[in-house]
Amino acid sequence: GDVTVFAAASLRTALDGIAAGWKAETGHAVTLSYAGSSALARQIEQGAPADIFISSSVDWMDLLETEALLAPGTRRDLLGNTLVLVAHGPDAAPVGIGPALDLPALLGPEGRLAMALVDAVPAGVYGRQALESLGLWERVAPQVAQSDNVRTALALVASGEAPLGIVYGSDAVAEPGVSVIGTFPEDSHAPIVYPVAQTADSDSAAAAEFLAHLGSPAAAASFARQGFIVLE
Amino acid sequence: MGFLGPEEWQAVALSLKVSLWATLASLPLGILVAHALARWRFPGRQVLNGLVHLPLILPPVVTGYLLLIAFGRRGPFGAFLEETFGIVLAFRWTGAALAAAIMAFPLMVRAIRLSIEAVDPKLEQAAATLGASRPWVFLTVTLPLILPGILAGAILAFAKAMGEFGATITFVSNIPGQTQTVPSAIYAFLQVPGGEGAAMRLVMVSIALALGALLLSEWISTRVARRIAGR
Amino acid sequence: MGFLGPEEWQAVALSLKVSLWATLASLPLGILVAHALARWRFPGRQVLNGLVHLPLILPPVVTGYLLLIAFGRRGPFGAFLEETFGIVLAFRWTGAALAAAIMAFPLMVRAIRLSIEAVDPKLEQAAATLGASRPWVFLTVTLPLILPGILAGAILAFAKAMGEFGATITFVSNIPGQTQTVPSAIYAFLQVPGGEGAAMRLVMVSIALALGALLLSEWISTRVARRIAGR
Amino acid sequence: MSLSIAIRHAFAGFSLDVSFQAPPGVTALFGRSGAGKTTVVNAVAGLFRPDAGRVAVNGWEMFDTAAGRWLPPHRRHLGYVFQEGRLFPHLTVRQNLTYGRWFAGGPRDAAEVARIVAMLGIDRLLDRRPAALSGGEKQRVAIGRALLSHPRLLLMDEPLAALDEARKAEILPYLERLRDQTDIPILYVSHSVTEVARLATTVIALESGRVVKQGPAAEVLADPQAVPALGVREAGSVLAGRVLRHDPDGLSEIAVSAGRFFLPQVAAEPGAQVRIRIEAQDVILSRGRPEGLSALNILPATVSEVRRGTGPGVMVQLRAGDDLILARITRRSADLLGIAPGMTCFCIVKSVAIARRNVGLIRGDAV
Amino acid sequence: MSLSIAIRHAFAGFSLDVSFQAPPGVTALFGRSGAGKTTVVNAVAGLFRPDAGRVAVNGWEMFDTAAGRWLPPHRRHLGYVFQEGRLFPHLTVRQNLTYGRWFAGGPRDAAEVARIVAMLGIDRLLDRRPAALSGGEKQRVAIGRALLSHPRLLLMDEPLAALDEARKAEILPYLERLRDQTDIPILYVSHSVTEVARLATTVIALESGRVVKQGPAAEVLADPQAVPALGVREAGSVLAGRVLRHDPDGLSEIAVSAGRFFLPQVAAEPGAQVRIRIEAQDVILSRGRPEGLSALNILPATVSEVRRGTGPGVMVQLRAGDDLILARITRRSADLLGIAPGMTCFCIVKSVAIARRNVGLIRGDAV
Ligand SMILES: Nc1ncnc2c1ncn2[C@@H]1O[C@H](COP(=O)(O)OP(=O)(O)OP(=O)(O)O)[C@@H](O)[C@H]1O
Ligand SMILES: Nc1ncnc2c1ncn2[C@@H]1O[C@H](COP(=O)(O)OP(=O)(O)OP(=O)(O)O)[C@@H](O)[C@H]1O
Ligand code: MOO
Ligand SMILES: [Mg+2]
Ligand SMILES: [Mg+2]
């Protein structure tokens, strides 16, 4: 009756709470394995005992789907997120995000813009798309410092190492060392989506139940508290 | 229990188990390979040497990825092991131990190899003239003389195993109670807002354990050296 | 150039530069610390020993965080270095070298320490009776005798530096041409579906370089050993 | 032949070409520092593989380049006492001693260990480790270790050099007994002609990697031509004798072919065969039988050969009964006395001049 | 006093309590294996720190527990020839030789190196490394290395044990010259009374960590009471003499207080002072002046002391002129000849029985 969930590491706080609640409710235990979406997807390719996969990137879920590793009809978009510009310090002045934004000036000559890897990690990819669509990328690109994940990028800003960073709204929510000084327009980048699906190999009866539970109001509240946008 | 939650204690226990097994199970092979590299001349010696060092050179994620491809359930070795011996490594603590052992192997081998090279071959010759065949020379002369080196290598490997993260999480994922070692748990904490406190507590436990092992090994090898020096 | 793109070649060049500097710059300190641990008895010896080993025990990400806190521009050491010497580590290749050096330091120290312990103190005594003070004994007797060990330690450190990823990217991030080392580039490729091919090409380059260094060191130390053995 | 050795090897700057056969007993390798003695012994032990050669012990071939045969050291059943000890530092003295026995598979006779330990005077040391031993103590343990491994051939590379006279005197009889009571051949390297004369059945003199003299010990040692190879100070001859009786004043009477010999307390029963080495420099020649001298041994003899070198000394070989005696006297005395082949005279030898170490036993009648 | 040493230390199972003063020259530490010789030398070198004691060389205090003084080895300016060589394996022979000179800061005399190299016979080896040397070759290099470091005190722990007689004979004169021509005191460990008698100014006999006999060499060696400590075979006396002339037949005439002595070719100019060691066992006593003997040296003497032990031998001390001669004869001869204090008789010594190594030079008139 137990369920194993492979989930993108950034979902940890929310999912831990949801799983605990569900266990109290149903008695079914949920095992949660958090890692980067790429690692988890590859593991599922290699027969990992996952019943449910929650990815932070559409690409990896797409790959599993084309390889027929997902239980048909179980995939749905679970969560969305916003992309925000954060600055060091608790009360930095907000800026207007648009083609007129002079990021190099904000950064100063030495300052770095912290992002996740702009070609590889979803948050970085979205960030680059946004900057490109706003026509800001060309000028700021030389000053971008890319981290292996959003949390490290955020840490660079929180520590003051980088004055500005582009991260998910959900990441900025609970970090006292930074303030959100602007949110990128939804249409400046591809939709930020966390898809979920049951795996083809899953034979857990409870898996479908938990999958459904993820859409429950309680779960939605939990996700929302962490700054995610609950889709559907 | 107040310092760490039950899941964290579980990670600590698992890390200890994984690191211990990784160290102990790879020790005989480590000694053998170290001996071969130190004392034998055979074709392919440098290839073996290079192979042993690969995990050191490669980013851990790559090692983990290669392990996943080779020893995953669908991988050639993984499938073979499962079919013939019923051994499953993928996504089990045994896999974590394999990853840790492989990552720590170059360190273990180097430490042991250096200590073998420091043994005076004249003593081994003397043993041979007294009738000891190569294996016996090794067991009765070389091995006792390199015990401090073996201990050093084992502890080094243990420490590395306790800290190993990249290869482990890539190979066997991060499943609490199964493959979630202390470093993976630390990683998971660091990925969400507010997790730093819990992460640092785990870091402290992990430092305490590994340093404890380290000091123990220093103490033992000092004693052994003193005994040999006849003091 | 067809095998790798220009950005990848840049990463290769940078990795070499970072690893070389990390190794060479930490070597004197490594020898000093190894010598202190092997031959001196002083209070705090075990603390030093533990400190040296920390990077091995900790998950690399944690080391990266700690570096960031200590050596970032706002960190106590980072600010000091910048104000007094104008040295900036954050987001520079120098920071990558520092991260690599620190991650490789335990390996370097252990290798050198073992080789120092293998030097017969009786030879050092003989040098002392001939008028050599401690530093001279070290320079003229111990050092030449441990050259193979130093070489081994340096190459080990170099190899580790070539593969270092977690601490580096956390500390100095990934700026093409500045801090994007080969492992970061590999990691980036592995994050996207279908990136494995490009990653594996980089892996091969990185293996070739590190193994080349390794074989070179083996060859040199065999020659040195042969010379000492008078063959 | 018990020992058959042929070894050829070229080092840079030194080439070795040694070949000899030796009957059972002790074969002494004698030669100056750097002559190649250790190298030969190492080749016999299998620790060094020469370019070409053959080594056989009692017909058992251990090495033969022609036949492509090469036994590894541990299959050769040798006891090797090294020039520099080579004790196992991690084992106690006791464990060092019994190390080889363990592999020999022979009888585990506790009394044997006790006997050898007592002979070597290392009882006090059994529980120490080598690092806490003095130089001589180490060497004694090394000898015991080799002896206890039940070897088929004993290799000894200057085993006694680090020992004091008293200890040497204690160990030599044991080596003699080994030589006489067992079939174990011994290849013995030494700088000391005393040791060689006392122990050796066969002497092989090496010079710069070549055999310059070889043959039965008594012959080589009494050969005036061999004197340069052995060193003038060390020249001397060996007489065979039989113990007649022990007198109450501590002297033993020995029958030699030319008469009677008096020696201080010989440790052998009446009837025992002994060999007596007489150093050439200890022999005084006299035309007539001298009277009123403190020297007790006066043997009539006939000069058989006189060898004059460039120095002030003359080597005189005399026949006394069936034995050969070598005397070294000054040229001046030789001229004054008119020493020439054919002349008869008396050989005078002090009893006490013949050190106990110069008296050896043959065929174990030791007490 | 040139050398003043007091050392107390307790090992588990062995305690050392040695204290002596010695005048300039060579101080020989003599004693059986395990007596504590190396331990004393190590304490002097500063390689071993005893529980308590004091070491001073020519008034220069290197160690004094009472004063809390302890100089580290490299500040002591010693040349130490170790029992086991300890050459630097990574340096060539040449580099090993000049290692200490480098720190000594004294004159860099290339001729000095050449001279010592020639004396030690190691010219061929200069570019080799220690691993390619034989046992004796290693030891010769070690001696050269110590000599070339311009030491204020030379420590030699059985330096010649690994060398053959010929090489010993070559090196001994050099040590003598060192003793006589420089102020460098030498602390010399040896098992060989020959070496001791030839070199030593002062003899310190150790037994189980205690000094059992000490004093000027001539005295200790001619003391019949000292015989047990030194070993009966090694007893002998030392005569002072002056070279008169060298005869064309290769003999040298030496004036001693009791008459004239003939020795084979002494390497010293007429007029040079020499010391001649005569082993007690080489002396024959005769009631009357013997005739027709090949022995050339016949000195009139008066018996001054007779020491009978339990064995067959008797030790006789005689006064010949101003010198003391020790003779070891059998009890039987002593009785036959009626040897007793006060009796006059003749001491007969063969010229060739006095080995060249037993003739030493005093105050460097060497040729
Ligand atoms: N590896 C080598 N390369 C060149 N020469 C060597 C090598 N090993 C030994 N020799 C030379 O071979 C000769 C014989 O050496 P060996 O050790 O057999 O001498 P030995 O007769 O035992 O001398 P000793 O009495 O001093 O021990 C020496 O001149 C030595 O220098
Ligand atoms: N660390 C130690 N612990 C206990 N006993 C020791 C230690 N070191 C030396 N000894 C003992 O001290 C005694 C003296 O040793 P030392 O080396 O001075 O002898 P030695 O006179 O030089 O003998 P040799 O002539 O055999 O070299 C020996 O009995 C030895 O066993
Ligand atoms: O060095 Mo790694 O990056 O995670 O173990
Ligand atoms: Mg030799
Ligand atoms: Mg000694």
TrEMBL record, chains B, C:
One of its GO terms (cellular component) is plasma membrane. Its main location: membrane. The keyword Membrane applies. GO terms for molecular function: molybdate ion transmembrane transporter activity. It is a multi-pass membrane protein. Belongs to the binding-protein-dependent transport system permease family. CysTW subfamily. Keywords: Cell inner membrane, Cell membrane, Membrane, Molybdenum, Transmembrane, Transmembrane helix, Transport. The gene is modB. The chain crosses the membrane at residues 20-38, 50-72, 84-105, 136-159, 198-217. This is Molybdenum transport system permease. PROSITE patterns: ABC_TM1 (PS50928). SUPFAM superfamilies: MetI-like. PANTHER family: MOLYBDENUM TRANSPORT SYSTEM PERMEASE PROTEIN MODB (PTHR30183). It comes from the Bacteria. The keyword Glycoprotein does not apply. Residues 12-215 form the ABC transmembrane type-1 domain. It comes from Halovulum dunhuangense.
TrEMBL record, chains D, E:
Residues 1-233 form the ABC transporter domain. Keywords: ATP-binding, Cell inner membrane, Cell membrane, Membrane, Molybdenum, Nucleotide-binding, Translocase, Transport. GO terms for molecular function: ABC-type transporter activity; ATP binding; ATP hydrolysis activity; molybdate ion transmembrane transporter activity. Gene3D superfamilies: 2.40.50.100, P-loop containing nucleotide triphosphate hydrolases. It comes from the Bacteria. SMART domains: AAA. InterPro entries: AAA+_ATPase, ABC_transporter-like_ATP-bd, ABC_transporter-like_CS, Mo/tungstate-bd_C_term_dom, ModC_ABC_ATP-bd, Molybdenum_import_ModC, Mop_domain, P-loop_NTPase. PROSITE patterns: ABC_TRANSPORTER_1, ABC_TRANSPORTER_2, MOP. GO terms for cellular component: membrane. Residues 292-358 form the Mop domain. The keyword Cell membrane applies. PANTHER family: ABC TRANSPORTER I FAMILY MEMBER 10. This is Molybdenum ABC transporter ATP-binding protein.
